[in-house]
Amino acid sequence: MNMKTIKIILAVLTLTFMVSCGEYYRMVTTINANGNVYRALYASGDSAFRAGNISHNPFLFELGSDWTVNRCDTSLKYDFFGEEAKFNVKISKKANSIESYSKEIQCDTDKRSLAAPEESLMKKTGWFYTNYSLKVVYRKLQYETPISIDDFLTKEEQILWTQGGFDNYMNGFEMSDNLNNISDKFIKWYARNYFEISLEGIKKLTENYDLDRDKENIYKNLTDVVKVHPDDINPESVCNVLDSFYTTAYFSKLYQANHEILDNDYKQTLSITNVILNGISYELVLPGKVLQTNAPIIRSDTLVWKVDGMRLLFDDYTLKAEYRVINKWGFLLTGLLLVISIGSIVGLICAHCSCNAHMCKPCNIKLKA
Questions:
Q1: Which residues contact 231 (CB under 8 A, 6 or more apart)?
Q2: Are β-strands 289-293 and 83-95 bridged in parallel, bridged antiparallel, or unpaired?
Q3: What's the number of CA atoms in the CB half-sphere (13 Å) around residue 68?
Q4: Which residues have a Cβ under 8 Å from the Cβ of 81 and sit 6 or more positions away?
């Protein structure tokens, strides 16, 4: 097994570990034919929240008094896209429109991309049917990195890696080769950022060393040493490499004396990882026939999307659905108009008839001679 294959396997294992350690949420939105909306969210709450302590709120946003909270003593198992999730808390709320939900949400800035998608429902009324177009936009996560992903992956590669989608001409072998190439570049991207973030903290405490001048050579030495995974790149490992690079013990002593500051700054900078771990099952129950959607899963009248921070890492993630609802009044009015029209036609014919002479065949009365 070559080093490239090992890197890919480790990357997959890391992402799997990230997903399995994240918080799962289930959100079910039911849209009625009259436009009213009912939304229910499920999560796993600790004993304090189930006992009524609102400060232990397990959801991504603040709970207002208009949300109905239901707590369960036992957890309900749910198949979260192949992973088992357990929910013991449900919140629900009715609204006049789907647009109102996100506008009213209060939450931390770093959670808003996942907690408050921009939802809109456009209506186009016809005679027999009313067509609806639903659009839900989860905005890209707001964060900054020292090195842009654009230096490593094209826009198309970024979307493919985080949100999926293949061109139809690709077979399995071509897909695998394409993903291996993207995986390798993605690992290099976040490994370089881990290094830059670690080095930036060390620079603030360092004297008499020009780390910017030697940065490229230092990074090369680091990647030669750290062969397990980029997650092993942190302030401590960078200090060890700096000792080796400059043949000194200055940096390891620097880390020992300031490890709390360096580690806290490092973790705070990478706090976006906590949001990436969260995953949502966005489920939409529609009142009419689905005409078009990009939902990967369709269960009868329910559309299901998987939304998580990974999908929002490089771009917005948009959910779309078009459906139509029968206008019963359209059919009733059409039938009524047909009856009235037929009656009017018969009435006009009869108006030209006379009962004094011959019989008129349509109305069985006589016509004038």
A1: 14, 194
A2: unpaired
A3: 8
A4: 279, 281, 306
Q: Are 92 and 67 in contact (CB under 8 A)?
A: yes
| Phi, psi dihedrals of residue 119, rounded to the nearest 5° | -110, 135
The tens digit of pLDDT for each residue in 209-248 reads 999 999 999 998 888 765 556 778 999 999 999 999 999 9
CB-CB contact of 61 with 280 (8 Å): no
Cα 82 from Cα 163, distance rounded (Å): 17
- Write down the pLDDT at residue 226: 59
> Can you list the pairs that 263-270 forms with residues at least 24 positions away whose Cβ atoms lie under 8 Å?
263/234, 263/235, 263/236, 265/201, 266/197, 266/198, 266/201, 266/234, 266/235, 269/197, 270/194, 270/197
pLDDT (tens digit, 9 = 90+) per residue, 272-295? 777 888 999 999 999 989 999 999
Beta strands 68-80 and 83-95 are: antiparallel
What letter represents residue 274's amino acid? N
* Mean of per-residue pLDDT scores for the chain: 84
Nearest to 136 by CA among 101, 169, 168: 101
pTM of the model: 0.82
Amino acid at position 92, single letter:
S
Give CA separation, 13 vs 1, 84, 309, in Å: 16, 18, 17
The residue-averaged pLDDT of 81-104 equals 92
Cα 336 to chain centroid, rounded: 47
Sequence spans of domains, the chain: 20-116+278-321
